[in-house]
Amino acid sequence: MIKFGVIGYGYWGPNLVRNLFETPQTEVVAVSDMRVERLKQVASRYPTVEVTTDFRDLLDNPDIDAIAIATPVHTHYDLALKALQAGKHVIVEKPMTSTSEQGLRLIDEATRRNLTLLVDHTFVYTSAVREIKDIVEAGKLGNVYYYDSTRVNLGLFQHDVDVLWDLAVHDLAIMDYILPDSPCAVAATGINHVKGGTENLAYLTMFFEENVIAHVNVNWLSPVKIRRTLIGGSKQMIVYDDMEPSEKVKIYDKGITLGEDKDNLYKALVGYRSGDMFAPHLDVSEALKVELQHFVDCVETGAEPITGGRAGLQVVRLLESASYSMKHRGKLVELAPDGLCAGVA
Amino acid sequence: MIKFGVIGYGYWGPNLVRNLFETPQTEVVAVSDMRVERLKQVASRYPTVEVTTDFRDLLDNPDIDAIAIATPVHTHYDLALKALQAGKHVIVEKPMTSTSEQGLRLIDEATRRNLTLLVDHTFVYTSAVREIKDIVEAGKLGNVYYYDSTRVNLGLFQHDVDVLWDLAVHDLAIMDYILPDSPCAVAATGINHVKGGTENLAYLTMFFEENVIAHVNVNWLSPVKIRRTLIGGSKQMIVYDDMEPSEKVKIYDKGITLGEDKDNLYKALVGYRSGDMFAPHLDVSEALKVELQHFVDCVETGAEPITGGRAGLQVVRLLESASYSMKHRGKLVELAPDGLCAGVA
Amino acid sequence: MIKFGVIGYGYWGPNLVRNLFETPQTEVVAVSDMRVERLKQVASRYPTVEVTTDFRDLLDNPDIDAIAIATPVHTHYDLALKALQAGKHVIVEKPMTSTSEQGLRLIDEATRRNLTLLVDHTFVYTSAVREIKDIVEAGKLGNVYYYDSTRVNLGLFQHDVDVLWDLAVHDLAIMDYILPDSPCAVAATGINHVKGGTENLAYLTMFFEENVIAHVNVNWLSPVKIRRTLIGGSKQMIVYDDMEPSEKVKIYDKGITLGEDKDNLYKALVGYRSGDMFAPHLDVSEALKVELQHFVDCVETGAEPITGGRAGLQVVRLLESASYSMKHRGKLVELAPDGLCAGVA
Amino acid sequence: MIKFGVIGYGYWGPNLVRNLFETPQTEVVAVSDMRVERLKQVASRYPTVEVTTDFRDLLDNPDIDAIAIATPVHTHYDLALKALQAGKHVIVEKPMTSTSEQGLRLIDEATRRNLTLLVDHTFVYTSAVREIKDIVEAGKLGNVYYYDSTRVNLGLFQHDVDVLWDLAVHDLAIMDYILPDSPCAVAATGINHVKGGTENLAYLTMFFEENVIAHVNVNWLSPVKIRRTLIGGSKQMIVYDDMEPSEKVKIYDKGITLGEDKDNLYKALVGYRSGDMFAPHLDVSEALKVELQHFVDCVETGAEPITGGRAGLQVVRLLESASYSMKHRGKLVELAPDGLCAGVA
Fold it and tell me: What is the pTM of this model?
């Protein structure tokens, strides 16, 4: 049984608490939030849970084994670091930190203390994304050609992060999980429509060493909610639509076939293939439950979580570069040593 | 009655011929194509139409008033120029030419000879796009914030143009028609998955002097066909989905409202509005018929077509800049004098 | 503050308890269920709530003002009657009882004791159905021509009721709420695919005194979930699709117009009208919350609930007749005195 | 080469003529229509085709081998009979005739004269319906449980037939093709909203000797177009949605599994299965082309067409019974000798 303290009971905190309650190996000891009215909600729903406005009460509590952090991004680093220093395992909301330097520091702290650090990249634990990973790993797509995601809606304008850090973070986490390689360069464009605000609409292109491209379209100001990812491959292609109630993942036996004969005209070498579509049955287990179960396993075995510090840092690095590029109107930011990024001239 | 010669009977030519037949003020005198088997199809369907493998027969025919050109892009300039020089009015497939220099030359030729030059930006003549123009012009969207289009499918890989020239051209033509301003800078990224081919997948961002952004996602290698454009404004927002059988244009009374009080916190200034949706009835007239009627009117009155040389050139200029940017991994290409592009640092 | 005892903690009970917790004027004192494992769930989730395997403990508890019954249909009558006799107000799951005779008896008991009896016709309290009622009442549809509903999915095969009592009950409750008149005759067909089971697929036609028809298609054995109702009128028509995430109610300005001139041929008299579509914004309040608030109001004022005994009885009467007709392969069952059902020869 | 005369150039005639032109083994010699303006259209589009207002010119023309009849239903019998008597092969629009007696007479005439008689049940020749037939015949659905179709839109109000004869005819033709058995009893309800008109909305239930049911919902007064058929089986289930641009046929590995042990409780015997979904690739050949090719083959070989007189008669028989039942408010009409219709008490 792992006993939790939860810091932050805003949007995501209630989901964490509910799932911690429903997971057999976890228990919620205490919740902290600076807003008294939020704590009242905790008290009325979960009379057995201690509440406090001071997160340090949780760190000081020897009954607590692990801290879950569901607070604004700019507080992640400080809270997670203090929790690790207090000897607690940590689950921290995405993105892990505001800078990659902070991320490195957290990884170091967790490693030295043999503590589990898990970043809440929730989508990685959905049955849809796990199915996609299986398909990609099994080679069913052939060579992956592209990852193209649209993640837009009329969303809450965040104050401390731009839309990339709020929404594109999901795609970066998914890509880190399902793709064999990491981007070697990024270019982003975006716009801010609110005086004094951050970019509320952004487009992020990522280049890879192989002939692969990724693109993410994120927008807080869309009239409709779209959550759709196309993943193209040389053999098959995937449409992952998270708004579909049941058939979220569809695999299309479609594409082009390229001829081998180098002497033929270009024209003759491209053939088109249009075949069947297949939508695998997905189980309906809640992602957060699967994630908490994974956290429990990692605490017990000492294994690095799938979405541990390494994954969290990789995502923060890409976000840092993307925001920098966006500030400079799409200026290319290379992440790999010169010349290794084949797609980049 | 305007008598036509049609050059090119491949994919688009048959649509042109059929619509020219069904338009009361137009007539088809002759069709040319280098492929004899295509001409056989013309002959069996339209026994009264002359056929020839030499387009010059059409230019030399004094019975012919106008030439419609439906051939590969790299031939547009030469054919259109020769047609104008032969004193014929011209309808030319989109994009008008391969370079903006060629475009300027055609405009010049048409102007000097008082001939009508119309570029076949078909979407501009659909009831959906005309409805959108009316909505935007009437100020119903308030300030336009963005234009965001996805135009992907498993499409024919073109040989002489990249995917921007094949698909993004539609969005550039629509934007030229419905938006009050033109882009002042562009940045594009893309990839080519076929050895010896052109980019088959591309992302194009366009910046404006006002706080507006536009983005177009085009792809020849998508497992599903998507034709969806979001147009965001300060008052209302549009979703234009050309795949919908009837409700192609939906207007959402959704958005954010920004407070006026400068002293308040940022947080207090953003409010959310979620209201009704409205889908205007659209007539079902075929766009090409409307376009041909407009061409007839312009020939008769000497008026510049909505999609005349100016519009055709504007689109080619953007495509040129976009392809250049794409070759240079998203390098910003400014189209206006320095400092005028507000969105660009 | 109204204090509740809840009988039955199976599928619907947890929703009731959660909403009773979240409604300021209601409180849950105790829950009964014959299954100890269900009570354990109550105890872990709501430690302050008393649990018991004997529902009589709830009836005997003087702290309890109202009983909510969420048990199988065949137990509704007995439990509701005993609750009323114990002086408790009652909320009972739909359908109210197994027979109309039982329904009459409950109404009588509640009336004599001045107790509130509400049948949980949940859909009536959704913002979608309330919007539809407003539209119909305001005369926007003109004359209502038909109500046509499809309510199918791979659903739990019930043991004590057929699919009409499980699914068509929702449409009968909605029709009772939104239509000005009641059916005067019914005819139903259906089939049972499981030996020893009840009909799992049924089609119910209802005739009205005016020139109106209603039809409900219900099915426990559909591969896809469909919840769609068409309501046709002389002026406008509604599509109500409960599977749509946001635009659940769409109003179409479509239909036919009938000429007045009696001498003209029939042909000339039918004109077609195809106009705009409008989807009103719907608030997202949970129906059960609205229903509980309404129950509280009725208890306080003594008013008859919208879905009180009268509505509950009307629905049971139609179900009785429909099941009878279904057993007799669509035999017409008249509910009004002879000759009053205009649609019936 | 089979030379055709086409009688009737209204809605369907132009499709017939176009497809006859595009089929290599067929040719159009002449078209008749009583409306001169329709004939003008033929002349301008197909200058080589003879036109006449008198269909007898076609029957008398010795150059003509086959007659295609695309006229109102009440004229089918007379025209088809005269055409057969003139020694011509016949394609006749659906439904074949107005009465089953007429249908028998046509079959007799065609048989005696060794002429091919094909009823234009177009849907039978679509790749979607042929795929469904293959699936059903291969036993992939297991035992067929039901066929449930919705075929509604704002359609042309017909003058000489009710909505069953106009729309349900498609489903009866499809069922005749794909199901191993025929209905043994029918019950229909419907309504007419136009004074002096025919039923414009109808519901048709069909019973079978096996434990199968079929239902068709047809409506000329729907605000939206729906063309969806569910086919349920013991192993798998099909959703056939003709409005889908590409994935028209989806096969769901979903359903219930029934236990064998007779001693167990009913409850224990029903299990639920929710598996993958599969959408086979369908070719895009136009149904009418496939049908004309089949007609050519039948003329050459003397084989009975898939949708020959037998199929045409079967559909007319069901329509006759259905309209009779509808006039009598769903009165059951048995088509088989007493006692053979297992589903009917």
Answer: 0.94
Q: Kindly give the residue spans of alpha helices, DSSP state H, lying in C76-155.
A: 76-85, 100-113, 127-137
User: Could you give phi then psi for residue D88, rounded to 5 degrees?
Assistant: -100, 145
The burial of B209, by beta-carbon neighbours within 10 Å (0-12 exposed, 13-18 middle, 19 or more buried), is given as middle
- Burial letters for C186-217: b for 16+ Cβ neighbours within 10 Å, e otherwise? bbbbbbbbbeebbbbbbbbbbbbbebbbbbbb
Count how many pairs of residues, chain A against chain C, have C-beta atoms within 8 Å: 13
Reported in sequence order, the residue ranges of B74-161 that DSSP labels E, i.e. its strands, are: 89-93, 117-120, 144-154
**What are the C-alpha distances in Å from C83 to residues C7, C56, C66, C93, C342?**
10, 9, 8, 14, 42
Q: What distance in Å separates the CA atoms of residue A242 and residue C28, rounded to the nearest whole number?
A: 36
Locate C187 and state its tokens: 């005819």
Indicate yes or no: CB of C223 within 8 angstroms of CB of D343. no
Of D253, D275, D279, the CB nearest to A276: D279
B300-314 burial code (b ≥16 CB/10 A, e <16): eeeebbbbbbbbbbb
By C-alpha distance, which of D250, C245, D274 is closest to A243?
A: C245
Contact predicate C236/C255, CB 8 Å: yes
CB-based contact (8 Å) between B243 and chain D?
A: yes
φ/ψ region of A302 (left if φ > 0, alpha if ψ in -120 to 50, else beta) reads left
Integer Cα distance of D215 and D203 in angstroms: 7
| Residue ranges, chain B, pLDDT below 70 | 259-269, 338-340, 342-345
Return d(Cα A238, Cα D63) in angstroms, integer: 56
Please name the residue ranges forming H helices in D46-99: 55-60, 73-85
Which residues of chain C lie closer than 8 angstroms to B134, CB-CB?
Answer: none
Chain mean position to CA D15? 17
Using CB atoms, which residue from C47, C225, C245 is nearest to A47?
C47
Q: What distance separates the 2 farthest-apart alpha carbons in chain C?
A: 77
pLDDT tens digits for C118-142? 999 999 999 999 999 999 999 999 9
Collapsing DSSP to helix, strand or coil, B334 comes out as: strand
Contact A256, B256 (CB under 8 A): no
Give the mean pLDDT per block of 10 residues along chain A (345 residues): 97 94 93 96 86 98 98 97 98 97 98 98 98 97 97 89 97 97 96 91 95 97 97 97 94 84 53 91 93 98 97 98 95 81 59
Residue B282 contacts C where some CB pair is shorter than 8 Å: no
Q: How far is CA B328 from CA A331, B324, B331, in A?
A: 10, 6, 6
Q: What is the dihedral of CA C127, C133, C135, C139, to 10 degrees?
A: -170
**Which two tokens mark C180?**
């000005």
Domains of chain C are 2-122+288-307 (3.40.50.720), 124-283+318-334 (3.30.360.10)
- Write the ipTM: 0.94
pLDDT greater than 70 at residue C339: no
DSSP assignment of C42-72 equals HHHH-TTSEEES-THHHHH-TT--EEEE-S-
- How far apart CA C70 and CA A141 sit, in angstroms, is 49
Q: What is the pLDDT of residue D269?
A: 63
Mean pLDDT of D236-265: 84
Q: A: neighbours with 3+ CB pairs under 8 Å?
A: B, C, D
For residue range D140-169, list pLDDT tens digits in order. Answer: 999 999 999 999 999 888 888 999 999 999
> What's the distance, CA A286 to chain centroid?
16
Element (H, E) at A30: strand A26-32
d(CA D316, CA D76): 12
Phi then psi for residue D23, to 5 deg, are -90, 125
Give contacts of C135 with chain B, Cβ < 8 Å.
none
